[in-house]
């Protein structure tokens, strides 16, 4: 009975989302997958809803979210992905009770959700996060794996692991430091205190803050703008920005220049016509017609 009730709650949640998207004329139709993962029907923009249902475990949820994201990344009809949660929480993090009895060997197993969730950072397609409510611990780390973050005014971000006797384990100490700087990251990680959406925007952790009821719609609008561009070029641009996290300035600039040249090269770029079409359309003051669509 508990599973049925949880499923019904999830369906109602998805129905409300679908109705909201229809009212906003955003053209995303959402379908519910098991254990609270929802994705829209084939479209240029897909919405994945992360919402834990009833007694379903975090491990199951994370595996299904990652499976959904990877499937969308392979789907040639999808050009951009939006990841969101409930109004109360984007993703609250790990189940502390479940983790409390784990051993080092169990936690370090390749199939453990700690290791599985990191796959979100490997997607080729742009991932836009729509965050309302709490994004704490693993939830904050998942949010930081998104390429762009849109936060509702009620969003809170935090790495509270120190309060339960451990440290962030899915990139929190690394991505947070790169996003907001050493001193701010140290304060968050060492005190375990949360920051508000407004603070997150000032620090550069999120792209912008919007009213709670506009968070998903804004994220979808951003995603659809991205989806309107040439996907090979978008993927090149994403790759270059991400390279800034992994290399020195000189190495990053050299890598960027290599891909810039590649955008003009028939051999290296799968859709070289897009560069020619984009520049020609600009000169002719018309909308570009990308060849990869």
From TrEMBL:
Q: Cross-referenced InterPro entries, in alphabetical order?
A: ClpP/crotonase-like_dom_sf, Enoyl-CoA_hyd/isom_CS, Enoyl-CoA_hydra/iso, Enoyl-CoA_hydra_C
Q: Which domain of life is it from?
A: Eukaryota
Pfam families per the UniProt record, alphabetical: ECH_1
Q: Where is the signal peptide?
A: none
A Gene Ontology biological process noted in the UniProt record is: fatty acid beta-oxidation
One Gene Ontology cellular component: mitochondrion
- GO MF, one annotated term: hydro-lyase activity
**Gene3D superfamilies annotated for this entry?**
2-enoyl-CoA Hydratase, Chain A, domain 1, Lyase 2-enoyl-coa Hydratase, Chain A, domain 2
Q: Which family does it belong to?
A: Belongs to the enoyl-CoA hydratase/isomerase family.
**Per its UniProt record, what PANTHER family does this chain match?**
ENOYL-COA HYDRATASE, MITOCHONDRIAL (PTHR11941:SF54), ENOYL-COA HYDRATASE-RELATED (PTHR11941)
The protein in question is named Enoyl-CoA hydratase, putative
